[in-house]
Design brief:
By secondary structure, this protein is of the alpha+beta class. The protein has one helix spanning 40-50; strands at residues 5-10, 18-24, 52-58. The mean pLDDT is 84.
Length: 61
Amino acid sequence: MIIVGVNEVGRGCLVGIVVAGAVILPNDFTWPELTDSKKRDTLYALITHQCQWAVVEASGD
């Protein structure tokens, strides 16, 4: 089974742009501080190099 973490931000396509991101962590991915938002730069580097990820933008236009 593959588990995908997804999050979105925006007011909705009728009002403006919506941006969504998704990440699939590999089974051997371990990082004890995963929930520590102060470590975003380190986490970004790990995710972009070790995981499958995507960011998309959508609008009503």
